[in-house]
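Dear Dr. H.,

I hope your travels went smoothly. While you were away I took the liberty of generating a structure for the chain from your last submission, since the lab meeting agenda had it listed for discussion. I wanted you to have the full record in hand beforehand rather than looking at slides cold. The sequence, exactly as received, is reproduced here:
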Amino acid sequence: MTIFERLYIAFFKEKAKRHLFSKGLSKVSMPNLSPTQHPDAVHFKHYGLIGDIIYAVPAMKALAGEKKIHLHLQINQKSLYKKSMQHANQGKILTEKSVEMIAPLLLAQPEFAVVDVLTDQPVDYDLDEFRNFPFDYNTNHICRWYFHMYGITADLGKPWLQVTPDPAFKEEIVIARSFRYRAPGIRYDFLKDYPHITFVGLKEEYEDMKKAIPGLKHRTVRDFLEFAQIIAGCKFFIGNQSFPFAVAEGLKVPRALELCFECPNVIPEGPDAYDFLYQPQFEKVVKQLDQRAK
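The corresponding predicted structure, in token form, is as follows:
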């Protein structure tokens, strides 16, 4: 494809995006910013993917201020993804098991007092309202979707998650790679030359990665607090745009993101934060992170 063909296609794509954005502006209104139902707590509702919940934490903290966060998660919503792209929840975005897994991690944060399944609890902020706004969900930064909706901000270069690191992983490169959001041409086989590598993620994802890295170890966890402690304690982390990288980003561990060029809506921010699209640069980043950790 020539540069002129690229420009032609880009022009009409941008024109279509502008039309859809302008059309959606008529539906935009400022969500309620004055929760008054409880003097000591702010209640939030969310039904998004677990990674999206992690990326919503900075907004929840900004909106709650000095009050405690009560997060009510709506379960059994139909998946937003095509059948071929679904993951472990059998066509649902969140399940009761999802809540059981993520609650310990969020409740380990001093700002959170409650994480439970939504039933009839009061809700001050419906974090799913961003779906009614004319965002381009394939760009920007998931954290900032909430910022744009509520007119707030936070320093995303600073940690927004904290856990006690697991010292057993201080020599380990920890990796995760979902089947979604993979960059074309990226290979992980060069990592077989690094002696200590642990995979965190689903069994089928691990088995796929083990084809490229025969010595790869797999670590399963009882919940996502243990998961975060492993990432917090590792030498550095490599992942694509899925839940594990959201945790690494929230913790601000040294990290490298396999960026999906079609959907670059995760932006690493802060020290020792890399993203990559091309193989030579990927190998260079890993070498730099490894040398820096020594």
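Two observations you may find useful: The radius of gyration is 20 Å. Residues 41-150 form one domain.

With kind regards,
E. W.
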